[in-house]
Amino acid sequence: MSESPEHLPAPRSTEARSRRARAARDAPRQMARSFVQLKSSVNPGVLVITVLVLAAVMVSVSQPLRNYFEQRADIAEVNAKIDRQEAEQQALTEEIEKYGSEAYLKEQARTRLGLVEPGETAWRLLDPGIDSGADYVPGEVTESDEPETPWYSQLWGSVATPPDAEDEADKDAPPPEGESPNLPVAPDPAPEQ
């Protein structure tokens, strides 16, 4: 009883090989169908839960985002303040460096303290209309506040009168109390030894 080769089962190696080839051919079609096919109806419970989860995520992320943007604004404000202070520091440093110059020191002594170099004549212009003993109330207009002559006439009168025309007796008289006839001058340099 010999069986013919037609009735015998196929060897395992060829059967497995053909099964694998068929699976490889059909796999792309099955994958494409699984990606394309969607459920035709959406469950309302799943939809509500999804919306609630998204809302919770947005609420939980909103506070840190607000803090982040507020802190960025604070950082920008602090950086601007630092820049302003650095510019102010630079200006003050330059002002300090000015005082290293002898010419600047002399200029400041002249303008602020009224000092003069030895041999120079100091002039001080005084307004005779100022009364130091009178009580002045701001906003109150008195008769003495209004000039009797226009300002340009007063100016011309002060320039037109030569200093030699003053009374010689006034020059020899002692100065009034509290006033010094001499203006302050720079001290003489110490003699070298």
From TrEMBL:
Keywords: Coiled coil, Membrane, Transmembrane, Transmembrane helix. The keyword Transcription does not apply. The keyword Transmembrane applies. The chain crosses the membrane at residues 41-62. Residues 14-28 have a biased composition (Basic and acidic residues). Residues 184-193 have a biased composition (Pro residues). It comes from the Bacteria. InterPro entries: FtsL/DivIC. Residues 68-102 form a coiled coil. Residues 1-28, 130-193 are annotated as: Disordered. This is Septum formation initiator.
